[in-house]
Amino acid sequence: MGESTGKSQGYAETWEGGFIRHDSKGRKVYVIRRMINGRSYKVSTRATTLRAAMEQLKRFEADPEHYNPAGSAHEAPIYLDAPLAGEFLAYSRDVDKNSPTWVKKQQGYLAWWADQLKGRDLRKATLLDDILPALEGAKARGHRIAVLKRVYSWLRKVKHVLSVAEDPTFGRLTVPQAKPEQWKRNKAIPREHYLLAREHLAPHWRDGMDVQAGTGWHVSELVRFARMGSVEPYRGEAEEIAGVLVCPQSKSGEPLRTAVSAEVLEAGKRLLERGSFSFEKYGLAIKGACNAAIIPPFTPGRFRHSVATWAIEKGADPASVAAFLNHKSPSTTRRFYATHAVPTKVPTLR
């Protein structure tokens, strides 16, 4: 399969297995070119990363005549065992650039799935017989579904060892949205509680809290900023803005730039000077500060909700708050982050 006796031609980019071409979208596609036992082979791996291409090259070299980048029904079964889970987690960490916290959670969910699908070939697992029964009554159902879907997607798109037809999650299993009752809980931190807890924090953790309170960033963004963020000057005319904190990458892949006050700017600079920030230790420090202040404990993940609520209750336009929090739509801000904000009062008859 993939045999070609076409005339050799030069390519600007090469790799260990052959050459690299570009598809219609400009992405690199790795092509195998080999001469084996007098026969010339030239076949696309369909891989767009070197890591995936090397996996394909191993499969090709094992059986050049019957090599198929999409896999075949005659290949060895795929089990969700420790080696496969370890390879996926390495990809999640190194290529998907997921946070250590999420990778650790993925590891736990993979262990759970490995137990549920023990001895089951992932190519032959079915939604009705294997996956949905396992999810019945399971906690964190959305996360478990998301992890399994990502594993199958990785097997299809990166390792190219199964087809869409062999993926029981493709187009049939969706990650559930948050339940309405979750939106009814008030996640905003009372401002006085924030100030009380702040007094019981060590300077480093206090700086982190001040940056979150001044930006509405996720904790993962705060950690990335401390490790490899930057500060830019503010070139506008608003007196309350002293500078811009730059988080190197947001979910969309673009740097996240947030205008901040002088106090938050200085806190950000101190975080950059230190260069590291522990997600876990930060949460524990805030919990300890809440206990010391004798207030209900809150987690740093609630600051995003709090910033949105505080801003709208002070009269900020939801569209402006959405732009500040890097939301694509103001409806996201209202639906998920400012559900308990009280709109500014308008003139009435009484």
TrEMBL record:
GO MF annotation terms: DNA binding
Keyword Flavoprotein belongs to the record: no
Keyword Cytoplasm: no
InterPro entries: DNA_brk_join_enz, Integrase-like_cat_sf, Integrase_catalytic
Superkingdom field: Bacteria
GO term, biological process aspect, one: DNA recombination
Ranges for domain Tyr recombinase: 172-350
A Pfam family hit: Phage_integrase
Keywords linked to the UniProt accession: DNA recombination
SUPFAM superfamilies (alphabetical): DNA breaking-rejoining enzymes (SSF56349)
Protein name per UniProt: Tyr recombinase domain-containing protein
Lineage, uppermost ranks: Bacteria, Pseudomonadati, Myxococcota, Myxococcia, Myxococcales
